[in-house]
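User: For my dataset I need records formatted as: sequence, then C-alpha cells, nothing else. Please produce one.
Assistant:
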Amino acid sequence: MAGPDRFSLLPPEVIVSILSRLPLKDAVRTSVLARSWHHLWTFRSRLSLGWPGDPLGNTGNSGPVASSWIERVHHVVSSLRGPLLHFALCEHFSYDQSALLQRLLDLLLQKEGCLDTLHLSIISDSLVIHLPSFHSLKRLALSECRIVLPTGFQGFQRLSTLSLQSVQISNDDLNFLIHTSNNLTGFQGINFVASEDHPLSVKLSLPLLRYLEFGINNSVEKVEVISAPCLEQASILNYTYSDSEKFASVTLGFLTTAVMVSSLELSFNVLKLGDHSIDANRNGILMRELLLKKHDGVSCLDQTLECVRIDTENLNHFMTGMTLVKFFLLNARVLKLMKVAYRTGSGVEPRMIEELQKAKVTTSPEAEVVMICQRENVIVNF
C-alpha cells in the first residue's frame, strides 16, 4: 500500500504559495490531486484573468457568453477565503455588461482589506467604470476604459503607483484622482481620451513623486508639474502625430524645487520654466533669447541631472528642439549624456548637426552629445 505523497506533507502555506503561482484553472486541477489540497486554491492571493494564454479567458466579447464569463469570475472571487492581494482583469466588454462589472468591483471592495494591486484593462469605449475608493490599494493600472469617480469618492490614501493608458476621463475627475493620491511615487499617463470641447488641463503637485511619464496628445491642453521635490526621472513626450497648430504647454515648475532629478526626456513645443518660456508658435526668437541664459539656483541642474533626451521628431519647430538641447547643455552643470533623437530625411539633418556642433563648443564641452537616428541604427557622437 502506497504511503502519503510527499507534497501533502508540506505545510499548507507552502502549498498555497505553489498554487498561487499557477494559472487559476491549473491551480484548481492540481488541488484535486490530494484530498488535503481540495480547497487550498481558494486561499491564493493573486488572480489574473483574461490575459493572453489564460485558459479561463472569455471566448466572446458580447452577449450571454461574455455575461456568463463575468458571472464565473464573480463566483471565483466569492469563493476565495484568504486575503486577495493582486487582481488583474483584461477583457472586451459591452455597454450592457456594465452592471455585472460594477458588481464585481463592489465585491472586490468588500474583500479589499489587503488588496494592494488592481489592474483593469476593459477594452470598451462605451462601458463606464465607477471607481470605488479602495483604501488599501498601493498599485492601480487602468487601460482601455472610461472612468468616472462616484459621488463621495475619497481617493487612494496609500496609492504609490498610478498608470492610466488610453483612459477616457473628465478633467475634474483626473485632477481630483491625482490630488487625492498624495503618496504617489510613480505616475504614468499616456494617450488620454477627451472631447475637443473639454480638453485636459493637468496639474501635478506630488511631494513623494520619483518617476513621471506623461504623453501629450490632442486631448491635453496644458500640463503643469508644479512641485515634485523627490522626482528622479521624468519623461514628457508629444504623442500627437498631426499637423495641428494647437499644442499643449508644459510648465516644469519642478525644476526649481527638485533636487534629485537625474534623467529627463522631453518632446513638446511649448516649455515654461519660471518666468520664461520657449514657444515655437509665438515670439520664438525672443523667448529663446530669454531662455538661453544661465539659470543659477536650480538644484537639479546644479547637482544631479546627468542624462537628458530630446526627441525632435515630434516637435513642430526644429529650433525648439535645438533650444532645449542648448538650454540643458548650458545649465546642467553635471550633465554626462545628451541624447538627441531625430528621423533621417527630414531635411534638417545637416542643420541639426551644425547646431549641435556649435552648442557643444559654446556650452558644456564635458558632456557627451549623441544623435540617435530613429529609422536607422545610427549613433553620432560629438
